[in-house]
Design brief:
Layout (H helix, E strand, L loop, with lengths): L6 E7 L3 H12 L3 E8 L6 H14 L7 E3 L13 H4 L21 H11 L5 E4 L4 H9 L3 H4 L2 E5 L15 H5 L1 H8 L5 E4 L1 H4 L4 E2 H6 L6 H16 L4 E2 L2 H10 L4 E10 L10 E4 L6 E8 L1 H11 L4
Parallel strand pairs: 1-2, 1-4, 2-3, 4-5, 5-6, 6-11
Antiparallel strand pairs: 7-8, 9-10, 9-11
The structure holds beta-D-ribofuranose (BDR) and calcium ion.
Length: 307
């Protein structure tokens, strides 16, 4: 169980292979106290992202962390999953046993609001999924920006190519209206986009060494990344969501710049594109522009007992 002196965090996830690794990292970093997990439709549907999150926490021996189901579709658009990357179940080739515990009764936005009202200014939110739950929480509690300590979002492709389309990163593209509401709010946001996550993948050679390891963390990461390396024949497994978790614990892993962030919505091929602007009427956020890859992989490996 985490030390009370650590930083309380809530993760908003669409578990998802890299979300699962991010959950593992968050439970193993002594700097963080994961007080709750909220789920949303994204990589796979919300029933699967919820069930996957419960299974992952059970594997990690952390079924004490409550899971809250969130929105089952984007605010204004049809839902598109990312099962091409994450597999039909969302967990790649991994098969984790069912959890002994059930999802909570409260919804994800309700839990986020209750938690930050109870501990104003203390909790960091780590959304690593489409931002639907966060936009709904803002609608239900307009004081959210003053109640929350920081929001570390995995999302955006600012000065690089997208992954859902040439212009857009998946978490933003999947619910651009929600992303626009969140980016245009006074939430104190740090964006961890593809600009940095694509520079800090798990190398195949390191992954291959995990097969011989006995720890549950190594076995989980090996199983979660197997489909990417073997089935999809990739040389790298992207640690998008784990980097957002690591930056929450160790902010100096990235260099950030202060920018306003706008999100393209409407109709057309640029939906979900994130643009950096300097305009007095657009709230300023921190946007990661560089990452210390070796330091990140060292923190990652140490926390998950790979070294
Ligand atoms: C993001 O999209 C999802 O597929 C991943 O889990 C990650 O959160 C990367 O674009
Ligand atoms: Ca994710």
């Amino acid at each position: 169980m985490a030390d009370r002196a650590t930083s309380p965090v809530i993760m908003d996830v669409d578990t998802g292979v890299d979300d699962a690794v991010a959950l593992a990292l968050a439970t193993r970093l002594s700097e963080l106290d994961l007080i709750g997990v909220t789920t949303v439709a994204g990589n796979v549907d919300v029933e699967k992202t919820t069930d996957n999150s419960l299974r992952v926490l059970a594997m990690l021996g952390r079924s004490d962390i409550p899971v809250y189901r969130g929105m089952n579709r984007p605010l204004a658009r049809a839902y598109h999953d990312a099962s091409e990357f994450h597999g039909v179940s969302g967990l790649g080739d991994a098969e984790f046993p069912a959890s002994p515990v059930a999802v909570q009764f409260e919804t994800a936005p309700e839990f986020i609001i209750r938690a930050v009202r109870a501990r104003p200014g203390e909790i960091t939110l780590i959304p690593v999924a489409p931002l639907t739950n966060i936009a709904v929480a803002l609608a239900l509690e307009p004081e959210l920006p003053r109640l929350i300590k920081r929001v570390v979002i995995m999302g955006g492709a600012f000065q690089c190519r997208g992954n859902a389309t040439p212009y857009a990163e998946y978490n933003i593209w999947a619910d651009p209206e929600a992303a626009a509401i969140v980016a245009n709010s006074d939430l104190p946001i740090t964006f961890i986009g593809l600009d940095v996550t694509h520079k800090a993948p798990l190398p195949k050679a390191l992954w291959a060494t995990l097969a011989a390891r006995e720890g549950v963390e190594a076995r989980m990461v090996y199983a979660l990344a197997r489909r990417t390396f073997i089935g999809r024949e990739r040389e790298e497994f992207h640690l998008h969501d784990p980097l957002a978790v690591a930056v929450t614990a160790f902010p100096d892993l990235v260099t950030t710049e202060s920018w306003g962030v706008t999100v393209e919505s409407g109709i057309g091929d640029q939906i979900g594109r994130t643009c950096l602007v300097k305009q007095p009427d657009v709230p300023q956020h921190q946007v990661a522009v560089a990452v210390k890859t070796d330091a990140f992989l060292a923190r990652f490996g140490e926390a998950l007992s790979f070294q």
